[in-house]
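Ligand: LFPHGCPZ. Inputs:
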Amino acid sequence: MARPPYLTHRIVVFVLVDLLIAFIVIAALFQSRQQAHDRAATLVDGLAQVLEQTISAMVYRIDITLLDTVEEMESELAKGIDETSINVFLHRQIKHHPELDALRIVDETGHLRYGIGEAAGNTTSSSVADRDYFIRARDDPDSGLFVSKPVIGRISGKWSIALGRRINRPDGSFGGAVLALITLEQFQKLFRAIDIGPKGVVTLLDLDMEIVARHPEAKGRYSSTGTRITQEALTRALQKAPETGAYDVTSWLDKTARVMSYRKVDNYPGYIFVGIANDDFLGDWHKQSVMTIILMVLVVTITGIGIKKSERAEKERQRLTRALRLLSEGNLSLARAADEPALLSDICRLVVEVGGYLMAWVGFAENDEEKTVRPVAQSGYEDGYLENTRISWSSELAIGRGPTGKAIDTGKCQVNQNILTNPTLAPWREAAIKRGYTASIALPLVSHAQTIGALTIYAAESDAFGTEEIALLEELARNLVFGMETLRTRSQIKTAQTEIEYLAYHDPLTDLPNRRLLLDRLHRTLASRERTKCGGALMLIDLDNFKTLNDTFGHETGDQLLRQVAERLSNCVRKGDTVARLGGDEFVVMVENLSENPEEAAAQIKTIGEKILAALSSRYSVSEHEHHGTASVGAALFGDHQESVEELLKQVDIALYQAKAAGRNTLRFFDPELQAAVQARAAMEATLRQGIRDNQLLLYYQPQVDGAGQSVGAEALVRWHHPDRGMVSPHEFIPLAEETGLILPLGEWVLETACSQIVAWSHQPGMAHLSLAVNVSARQFRQTDFVEKVQGVLKRTGANPQRLKLELTESMLVDNVEDIIEKMSALKRAGVSFSLDDFGTGYSSLSYLKRLPLDQLKIDQSFVRDVLTDPNDAAIARTIVALAQSLGLSVMAEGVETEAQRAFLSSHGCHHYQGYYFSRPLPVESFELFAHRSVEETIH
Ligand SMILES: Nc1nc2c(ncn2[C@@H]2O[C@H](COP(=O)(O)O[C@H]3[C@@H](O)[C@H](n4cnc5c(=O)[nH]c(N)nc54)O[C@@H]3COP(=O)(O)O)[C@@H](O)[C@H]2O)c(=O)[nH]1
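Predicted complex:
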């Protein structure tokens, strides 16, 4: 969650103030340290001054005594030595100098002559002749006061220094010296008397910077008097100020840092140094500093805690704000949601987009064996988390002890503030770390006292869910459940409504439209007929003997049969048609998009009706019984005049009655004429089928002649000799045969008969040369094995293929040209020739006409008929002749009825004819007579 700007500002101010405080405190500490240092410097300076003056005064007073003694001794030497008087004198002098250890007089050889003080009685054996101060006094008449280096007294055995003066004899020669001995202990006593702190130091150095006396006495190898001090700081200070000064130094003797002050001692060849240790004079300062720093750290910490708290409070407030917004937008979503999946997705989306959480998902509790939690909606960074994580709500399974599973299992909200530290979430830790989730909350979705699932929300940061925020999220979950319940209720109502609606328009047993829906559709279809112009029909279907089945085997069996009938009926019609159940065993089929032509529409309905009859008469298996049933069908076409729905229903009812009356398992049309036509057609089909079987067909032969009137061949034309009706015209039965497929057996019969005839003529004189043209229907030619069939007939009959000419119509050559060419070429290779019948009536394109292996074009009789009266027909006839010539084909005109027509055609290059002018189609005997006669006529 982002930190608000004002909070950032506050933190910056806090840091700056803290820095300022730290700066001030540190500056104050430095200052107070400096002050302490200055005070210490003043102190040691003062002490050094006091000590310098003390020592200086002490040396001065001793020197006065030495001078008095020298004067006394020189006077004694001049008048003659009175030892008693000297000793009295010495006694008197030393009384005034408690600091002196001894006052001695040595002779010119250095031997002690008189002495007062410690070890004074031990005098005569002692000599100071080797001491440097004695030597100086002896050798230098002007030596004045001399001060020795510290030495261990030969008499006293103590460290001491000697101050002395030369004694002259009356003649000015060296007469000895007076010595005042001060033990270094005296200096120690003096130094000890001043307070310079536990680690303070006072040192008396001679001018060679060698220690004369030091307090405290240094220990270790530097403890000896006479040690030379070579500190750099000291050297620098003395160079700068040879008389008095101060400096900071860390002693190389005891490693203690000190402020040192020194003074050159008046009357004495040396310096007094006083040092106070930093630890001593900064002791309070240190305490004060520590306290101040502690105080400062406390202040900073307290301020920091304050800021942190305010940041936390701010974050909490922000979270609450966003949770409130989430709640409010969630409520809007509840109001808007169209369905439950959309609602769940939208809530998850809002949790992420408005709530600012990382991911949200809703899982439903399944009641399967594993008590699976099935994710149903999700939003936010997910990356296969849900797909790859198996979650259960069974506490018996490890995967069921996660927050979501627990929330569902317990019905209580599960808050996990840190997945990294919560040991119970170990199984999910890796997946969560990978996706950056740290905290989560799983909110149970409780509907009607049952937990149906959970809404689980993930946050990136730890401790992401505050108390009030949790309360708001719980409310969100409750609202979500309310929304789901509302949508479910709404959906149930809708489903119920749909079901009610469905039941209102459908038959519950068969699921087919019921009477109401049928009537509705019927009304609409009839109303739109004017616009669509398509034909349509209604069929009323009634099961024969259904009542018996129902009564015998019970209603359940009857119901099963009705359901199967419904299914079969539906399979008999197209999707757009309507199959309805009116009730009982009555079904209605409404067929639309039939031909506009009533006869064709009736034929279509007949086909469908028969399909239905066949479907309903095949075996049923109901309640382990086999049932053979039939049905009766009454049909009525939507007539040209606008019938009402009621009228149509009445018509099919009447038609059904007629079908039942006709012996059941049959179809009857309401229209009596159509009924008759359909019946007639059906009868014809049946009788034609029978006729083919009973050999009622025969071939007539129409001669084809050349320009000289000589027969060159014939066209075989089928005739049907109906036992009752006599000779039936091919115009009547060929289209029916085409429609019903009977053309195939019929065509095979014609071909077989024609080939047999060719064989017969091949043995007759004057007939063997004749070719025989056989009409081939489109359906026949399209048979995949047509070539094999022709070859088979030729082989079977032994006919000369050269005498067989197959007549194809132009219209059948439109589709699948390659296949046609292939078939024609195959037969052509076998010796069969081809003539293109009805030429000029179709759409032959010259480009592919050229590719067809044709032998002849036949000018259609429709052009020949008016060739003399209609210039267009004449032009077409002339063009066909010219075309045939240019393609290298022969040309034959059919339908030639007059000499004038023949003459016209002849004058334009057509020299083969067929038509009534020469002969009508003839039975075989008559044709043979015609052929012979024409030959004879030509001969004669
Ligand atoms: N697939 C088959 N079709 C066949 C077969 N036999 C006949 N047919 C086709 O039936 C249609 C009617 O044939 P038909 O009644 O035999 O009529 C043919 C001739 O009689 C008639 N014709 C011949 N000359 C004249 C004439 O001068 N005037 C006139 N009005 N009619 C005449 O023409 C018919 C032959 O036509 P076509 O076949 O186009 O050469 C007819 O379409 C036949 O094709 C068969 O076996 N199979």
